[in-house]
Specification:
The chain has 363 residues and is an alpha/beta fold. It has two domains: 2-247, Rossmann fold, CATH 3.40.50.300; 252-362, CBS-domain. It has 14 helices and 15 strands. The strands form four sheets. A six-stranded mixed sheet has the order 6-7-8-3-9-10, sandwiched between helices. α5 (109-122) packs across α6 (139-151). The longest helix is centred in the middle third of the chain and has 18 residues, at 169-186. Bound molecules: adenosine-5'-triphosphate and magnesium ion (MG). Magnesium ion binds at residues 42-43, 84, 161.
Length: 363
């Protein structure tokens, strides 16, 4: 869908090119994330694709057409752009901001209004907001307006420069999830820039790791980059917790679950003590097959010969098979339980253990 071949940009009055002979191919319908340290040429690369910056050399094609041969406005019609720092027009209402491209294209009022309402719905903002001004929205809401504006003319290609840069981590995670769910409906070709490697791993079908001068250090799916970094620059950029990061890409369903320290109601105190010893923990659970009632501690056994009349407690953290191994590890570490219970709805499936999780890290 997008092909950059030996693309170079040297800004006037600078000695070294900001982007030096970058070659990159982006397939239709995929999300490619450009990531790298500040100043490495990410924004410059993005802006060359829609010609907000003119390349000094090389060729760029979008959907088989040479972008240098197209009128800039014609090109941008097919490319939505979310700029770094959002860049909403402060004196225009939210509705008019979103309608920027439809207005440029001369759509009639009715069609534009209908499209704008469809978009606020898509990015999950209330319609009342359309008459407000950007200054009256939170940072996260403004980011969504930026995304809605870029989608207005339904372009097949979306360029997003740090689209979630200005918000706190929780809002950021929500916006990332929304983008993923939007993308599963819309199947756009998306080039997204970030300097946050975790965001790149979460959002990218493929991740391009760039170093200064737009030099492509590695271009591969996130799991491959994490398991097999191409060189020391990439390994260093990924950080020392590369193994743990990789866990976020693997679902719990990929590992063997342990039956867990689970006993039936009829079990004796002795059997419970033995079970706790076997797992090296001071608690056990009561249940049978796919039914799990809850857990109790060694102290709860005082005065009981069997588990018949033991009161159980509910699991605070209930994982499901689609959750990631990173979440499983987090649950194990924070709950002091050494294992984390996994359920499919109400069906108990087993326990994720540190041993099984770390087997995946080592692989
Ligand atoms: N108009 C310009 N004139 C001269 N140099 C420029 C211009 N725009 C960018 N540069 C330089 O080009 C290099 C790449 O800039 P670019 O904005 O692409 O970086 P970036 O990877 O997007 O960084 P950040 O993560 O900080 O946004 C930088 O060294 C920058 O100073
Ligand atoms: Mg930038």
């Amino acid at each position: 869908m997008i092909e950059l071949t030996e693309v170079t940009k040297t800004f006037p009055g600078t000695a070294k090119p900001a982007v030096d002979r970058l070659t990159l191919r982006i397939a239709e319908g995929e999300v490619v994330v450009l990531v790298g340290p500040s100043g490495c040429g990410k924004t410059t690369t993005l802006k060359m694709i829609n010609r907000l910056i003119e390349p000094s050399g090389g060729t760029i094609t979008v959907d088989g057409r040479d972008v240098l041969g197209l009128q800039a406005h014609e090109l941008r019609r097919g490319i939505g752009y979310v700029i770094q720092q959002i860049g909403l027009f402060p004196h225009k209402t939210i509705g008019d901001n979103i309608a920027t491209v439809p207005n440029l294209l001369g759509w009639d009022k009715g069609r534009t209004r209908a499209r704008v309402e469809e978009l606020v719905d898509l990015v999950e903002l209330p319609v009342e907001m359309l008459d407000r001004y950007p200054g009256e929205l939170s940072g996260g809401q403004r980011q969504r307006v930026g995304v809605a504006r870029a989608l207005a003319a339904d372009p097949p290609v979306l360029l997003m420069d740090e689209p979630f840069g200005a918000v706190d981590p929780i809002v950021r995670a929500n916006l990332q999830d929304e983008l993923l769910s939007l993308q599963s409906q819309l199947r756009k070709t998306i080039v997204l820039v970030t300097h946050d490697i975790d965001e790149a791993i979460k959002l990218g079908d493929r991740v391009a790791i760039l170093s200064e001068g737009g030099h492509l250090e590695q271009y591969a799916p996130p799991s491959q980059i994490l398991s097999d970094p191409a060189n020391p620059f990439v390994a260093d950029f990924l950080g020392s917790d590369r193994g743990i990061k990789r866990l976020s890409l693997i679902p719990i369903s990929a590992i063997q679950l342990d039956p867990g320290p689970v006993l039936p109601r009829q079990a004796t105190k002795g059997e419970a003590v033995e079970m706790m010893a076997r797992y090296g923990i001071d608690w056990a659970a009561i249940g049978q097959g796919n039914e799990l009632e809850g857990w109790f501690t060694a102290d709860d056994l005082a005065g009981h010969d069997t588990l018949e009349n033991i009161n159980t407690r509910d699991y605070q953290v209930r994982l499901s098979p689609e959750d990631s191994l990173r979440e499983a590890l987090d649950a194990v570490i924070t709950s002091h339980t050494a294992v984390a219970a996994v359920f499919d709805g109400n069906r108990y499936l087993g326990m994720a253990t540190v041993d099984e999780i770390s087997r995946e890290i080592v692989q």
